[in-house]
Amino acid sequence: MTVPPRPARHPLDWYVEPTWTVRALMQMIALDPDYTIWDPCCGLGTIPAAFDAMGRKAFGSDIADRRIVGLEWPFWHMGEHDFLGEQRHMLEIEPLLSVVFNPPYSYEDDIAERCVRQALKVASGMVCALLPIRWRASEKRFGFLQEEFPPLEILEFCDRPSMPPGTALHDRDEQAGQLTAWKRGKTDYAWYVWDRHRPRPDTRSRLIPPRTRAQKIADREYDLRRVGALPQLELAA
Fold first, then answer.
1. Where would a tag sit more exposed on the chain, N or C end, judged by fewer CB atoms within 10 A?
2. 40-50 pLDDT, tens per residue?
3. Is residue 3 part of a domain?
4. Residue 127 belongs to domain spanning
5. What are the distances in angstroms from CA 43 to CA 143, 150, 170?
């Protein structure tokens, strides 16, 4: 059996989380409905779109324009913005703001920690960061995660989410001709959750339950349709 080559790494760590990972977060954590949700690394908008579908006020921005030609760019997109740059974004003045994002974590040293620190600086509510489980296993981050800003919770996925590069969402296996995006996860991920109202000295860990095989198929089809890799039929809620 020939294993297809892995797509080349994206130079800015643009990896697209599947929608089911955001829905899982919403099922596990009660984010205050009065708070605006901001994803400052939104890519194609998986996170704000998932919250918007649940009736939440959610917006996204990104360091680069990730639009796919032929797909509608939704109203919640708030333009290009460098989250770690000097210029402030208009969403930072929101009095009730939570940050939910899948930050970059490898193309620059400590970039994920820098992004999380910035999120903790601008958020008045919760900060939820989707990162590899191994991110916490670091000598350099011991002080940050144990002494400065212990997460309220770490929610570990039993299923491994597939995170394809944003440039590979339409790729197909050359032999089988099948789409490869979101097909099989290779890295263990977790949601790292902070609550600005409830600092916690001891982090609690929980498991996000696995999905059924039928749900995995439905979840993958949803995202393939969402990015136009499959025909744009009406997407299920």
1. N
2. 999 989 999 99
3. no
4. 19-226
5. 30, 27, 15
